[in-house]
Batch of 4 targets.
Target 1
Amino acid sequence: MEDPPPPPPPEPEPEPAAAAAFPQRDVEPSPPPPRRRLLLRLRCAVQHYEWGRRGDASLVARLAAQDPDPARPYAELWMGTHPSGPSTLLDDGELLGDWLARNPDALGPAVAARWGGDLPFLSKVLSVAKALSIQAHPDKKLAEVLHALRPSTYKDDNHKPEMAIAITEFRALCGFASIEELKDILRTVPEVEGLVGHEDAGKLMSMKEYDGSSAVKSSLQSAFAKLMTASKDMVSEAISKLISRLNIESKIRTLTDKEQLVLSLERQYQEDVGVLAAPFFNYVKLSPGEALYIGANEPHAYLSGECIECMATSDNVVRAGLTPKYRDVQTLCSMLTYKQGFPEILRGVPVQPHVRRYTPPFDEFEVDFCLVPPGELVVISPVPSPSIFLVMTGEGELQADSQSDGEKAKEGDVFFVPAYTEVKLSTCGPESMKLYRAGVNSRSFN
């Protein structure tokens, strides 16, 4: 049997003298990494279109916290990254779009991948004093064509589905009326029938509700194009006759809502073919809290009231009436779907206590209405997309994730919130706080 190996030599002792000779100095701790900004206050662009409400009669002016010029229209407040009215960070003036380019994780991976590192939605507040143009927004394919052909008029290549949520009583024209209603117009408004022409009017009059959609579309498109392309002299004469007749008849009977609308539009846009076209569309009246969504290639015109509007990030508008701006009648008449029937009205669906959601059939956006009662805490769960919050009324606080210091919030404050951020909402004082949150449609992540 072999002898066991010898034990290993002992470890050498440390040399304390070295430590004594060179005493360790206090080292400043490294500064912590900068904390990610979870609530960005925004300064948002105001658009002074002529149809807007003036001075402090405009909700847009009040929200923008300006000292409004009583003679100037304040039509739209834009919250987003569109270059025609980009939002900036309130503290340093950096464009929100530039901040997102440096912080793409704020969009969430799904949004960043699908929409090219930018916000896919644009949120607005509208204060409408007089009718906007009869218009439609192109689908994606047409938007690309129009932008390539006329970039000065059609400023981007995106489509623009949109939704309007009424804050006050809100009036709009949207989509073509039913066949039976159109027949009634041709029977009772000879001034319109005369411009459409007997042949096209006759085709529509012979249509049935159950006729093939292609036949109805063809006849309606032909009749509408005839009306919209009538000469200025013919339009002027027809409007003059129509207004004179309605003024006389108003003394012996109550005018219909559409007849009263025609008189109102004529006072705003004299000798405009849109006055004669208005009866062709559905006349929609929204109460506060009701919403209307509008797809690509659908005719519409907002008439009066104030609303929250959300849409895909675009400013493409094809106009054909009720406007002093550029009209592209041929494009509008060729692009429309000519669908008929009254549009769907959304009233929002409760998704949790104090939060109601408006979900249109478009991937780019949805809107939540948040009502925060005094003394209550409303927690908005993290979502995989960024959000923009607008404080409509009241005062309170927004707190992001577990951060102890919240942000004070009052009427008109706008905040950008990155994806996957929990937001706690609370009030200050005796009044409820009302907010709107715009974000990417939750269904698009399913």
Note: The CA atoms of residues 192 and 276 lie 6 Å apart.
Target 2
Amino acid sequence: MEARLRLLLVVVVVAGLCAAVASAAGNSSVVGYHGDPTFNVRNYGAKGNGQTDDSRALMTAWKAACAATGAVTLVLPPGTYYIGPGTLKAATDLKRFGNDWVEFGWVNHLIVSGQNGAAFDGQGAASWPFNKCPIRKDCKVLPTSVLFVNNNNMVVQNVASVNSKFFHMALLQCSGAKISGVRISAPESSPNTDGIHIERSNGVSIADTTIATGDDCISIGQGNDNIDVARVHCGPGHGMSVGSLGRYVGEGDVTRIHVRDMTFHGTMNGVRIKTWENSPTKSNAAHMLFENLVMNDVQNPIIIDQKYCPYYNCEHKFVSGVTIKDVQFKNIKGTATTQGVVLQDVDLRYKGKGVSSSKCENVRAKYAGFQNPKPCP
């Protein structure tokens, strides 16, 4: 797709409606950036009255814009646009959805930029009781609010996501993405409402963002390379994680992860690497640096869990097929709500001449089970 779309969203939550979407334009005669052609959804039949289903009109305008060449602007004049799955508006009836609600896919140089409090409201509260994933492995996954799939060199900035049904935002097979100024919120009790999930992507940066949710603020899944996270405030939630990894056949390596200058407040975890045991495919999680992190009343500031299993009945009979190597934690400070550090069943072997070793400074640790290398005194 050669068209480079610039979508300006301003979302206003209106009583009794799922969401209202308008562009930053004050009228329908808006001119595109630098004289670029514009596609006004009103010209394609959108009413913007909060009652008429504008799904078909917005999709028609979107396809017309994508068929153009060069840089184009998709314009949504001020109004209340009631739209269904696959466009820009969440309903509460789960029967209307597939795997996601809003999908931006196969676009080069996509810009999603919000102004004046732009937000995606997932209306998730009505759906959370139907989420059985925290207790059932074969659960039906609820729709992600905003999915970015197969986009190259995109920018997402100054938008908000509230009360998603499942993940707030997900990046799948994206190359080159800059996310900044994003605000994500859902109650601490909301299940699986990960803030930003990344999978099979490369060259992704997330910066200057605030995430308060019921699950991982940021989750970096399998097949990712060169992910940079900076100046993100996380809390409440489950912290920031690499994983879970090693659950499915054909998972790719996770490499070159840099997390820096993050603040965690009241989260269950700080930074966590989690892998399933008995992985069907061998993979690596390598070259990761976590530095300059502040933990404020965090239960478990640092976790490496190679027997991850969130369900009630877990046997823990097998080892993980994910090899973790070259991981550094630097300058991590703050307060924890659990006593000390507990290391249990650690087996990290050095692939080279010599043996692995451990070093501790300013830590009071407890040990259980097998320990390799030998623990600090």
Note: The first strand starts at residue 4 and ends at 11.
Target 3
Amino acid sequence: LDGVSRLVSGGRWDCLTAGDSCSSDEACSPRLRTLRQCVAGGGSVKLGPGARNHCENAVTALLSSPLHRCQCKRGMKREKNCLSIYWSLKQSVLHGLSLVENYPYEPVERGFDYVRLASQVKSEVGMTTVNRCLDAAKACNVDETCQKLRTEYVSACIAPSVRAGPCNRARCSKALRKFFDRVPPDYTHELLFCPCSETACAERRRQTIVPACSYEEREKPNCLAQLRVCEADYVCKSRWAQFQHDCQPSELTASGCQQENYGACLVAYTGLIGSIITPNYLDNSTSNVGAWCSCATSGNFRDQCNYFLGHFHDNNCLKNAILAFGNDTDLKSATNQAPGSNTKQILVTSTETTTTTIGSGMETEQNILRPQMPTQMNERDRLWGDSTLPSPDPYDASPAAAHLAMVMWLLPFLLLALQL
């Protein structure tokens, strides 16, 4: 689609197209310029005594233009430009107008049946094993886009830089966002949310996004400091708004989600990966997730900081979405429970009996990125799986152990990158 005819879902305009349309209109263009002056820098203060009225009049007029309901597509070209147009109007709430919208991105369709992805991925590579983490890695290798972008981000996250040292975090984060924005959830969700029942599998799952470069630091930074940086960036701010909306918990729904859409919650969660508040598994012994930050130095703002962490640590919607994905639990079956039934208990209980069987063919470092033809898993693969190097003990937090584990896990990626 091109130019003025470009629309997004629900008949809404693409914000870039809406902006171009407004700029070329004699009546709309001056109001858009006024709006940008209102939002930029010190806002209405720079425009003189009557600035507040000018700003409010401009916003009121723009409410009838395509800018009012425009949206952006996650991962689109010029995404930041698109989001800047969206937030210019939405931030006008500072001038006394309440313009409440969910978030800038197209909503995830309610029919997104993510629980069928496991069987779909397995069928593509001809697998009959019950180790979905292994199946997901091999399925990604078979898909050209998934394999290419996965190799790309791993290479970016382990390649040393003269200026950035052993890890160029900005380059790593950009490649991660590209992977999760452009590769279908069929592959990304299976790689990130596949169920594990032992620490070796869980550690490899935790290392999926190469945390040592993508977000980990020796000392955990303050969560509120990270959130302030996030909210000052159009992309991060938009991803955070999407996550808060689509993963909003509720005690009044059987699913535990206000929107009752597990698929949308997981899409929103992966949208945060590659940002300054990148979440990941907290350890290799549970499926608990969170951002790499702390509230230890929050002082009088400890409650605000804990509230931020609670979006991950105490979020039943997010927890149930991850558990349901691992259990192949259809959201329809969860929402059809009788009123008052405790779906969360059902999900938590069932995950103990439906997770990966130990010894059924663990994912090996050798085959994690190697393209493979669809085939049944043979005895040689099982032997390689059985010889997988064990992960560090979850209680061994020594830097040496963690560094050794990272080096051993990333070695095959580095060798593959050098061959490209």
Note: Residues 15-92 form one domain.
Target 4
Amino acid sequence: MPGTTIVEPLDLVGLQIPYHFRCPISLELMRDPVTVCTGQTYDRSSIESWVATGNTTCPVTRAPLSDFTFIPNHTLRRLIQDWCVENQAFGIQRIPTPKQPADPVMVRALLTQASAVSSPFQPRLSALRRLKGLARDSDKNRSVISSHDAREVLIDIVFSDTGSSELSVEALAVLVMFQLNESECESIGSDPNRVVYLSRMLFHSSIEVRINSASLIENVLSGTRSPDLRAQISNADEIFEGVVDILRNLNSYPRALRIGVRVLFALCLVKQTRHKAVQAGAPATLIDRLADLDKCEAERALATIELLCRIPSGCSAFVAHALTVPLLVKTILKISDRATEYAAGALMALCSESEGSQREAVSAGVLTQLLLLVQSDCTERAKRKAQMLLKLLRDSWPEDSIGNSDDFACSEIVPF
């Protein structure tokens, strides 16, 4: 056939892979072979990428793709699996049977059933649970579900079926897997009853429900541009207490900590309500859990610490915690440039307010850390904070530090 590419067998560790088992695009062994309207077969991921980049022709025949439906080639997949089993001695592992993408017709039916208020409770609950399973399976499934106005349907169920908590919490579990647009965020954040409901769900008996509620709050806060709306959300009764309790809970696992830190940071971006975070115990909780966080969330936690250090009650709370200053000093140059910048900023605020914090910082080795920092490739903002902090701590330097310390001797800091 004109335009058809013949792929020769690939030699892999002394084993020839039949050419018709290989994707014509990637030349790799196909894991999920699908056939397009021209009759050619490709690995699903390869042909989906081909189409996603704007191509509208068959890669092999160059004929136009009149239909972008990809039909699973079950026969070829079974032949490839059998071949893998026969060649296990060559280190070939059997390719697992792939999960098929969600059928759009089925997704539409499930959404219709889930939203049918007149339907019995159990079929609606089953439909939501099936949607949750599909959404968890793959990005492709989430894309299919989202294309059927699922977010609007789910928002309605979450807040209209609060009397039936099971329906509400299942819909919430599905909803948090999608990114809301601005109008959807505003429809939630501008309704005090909806905000109060989410705040109340932060104290649910199930940790999963609490996490999902926190996740939706963070989604809404991040998705709205209105400062007044963000302030209204952060001012909801006990919202800070609920979020801090998720972080404080020793049974919290990585997802709980990650979402807890994200939503606390989003709440603390609102200046007017930062005092509520302090009252809820956020300073001590952040210090206690900092070592449990991965890089990205540790950065957010340190950014939140710096934000809370900008108010007097926040400073006082951090000063009162014995580990605050040593931990911030230890963090400098250890996690990332951004983390270093936030830690230096927090230390600057604490040492400006407390001579005791100055002495603690010096005892914890902050001078060496700061001198290394100003000579590093970190951000200019971090270097400025380090220089300001060195100047602030000038009276706390040990008397023999400049004369006897190699760190000070090699410093590029201009004497004050």
Note: The radius of gyration is 28 Å.
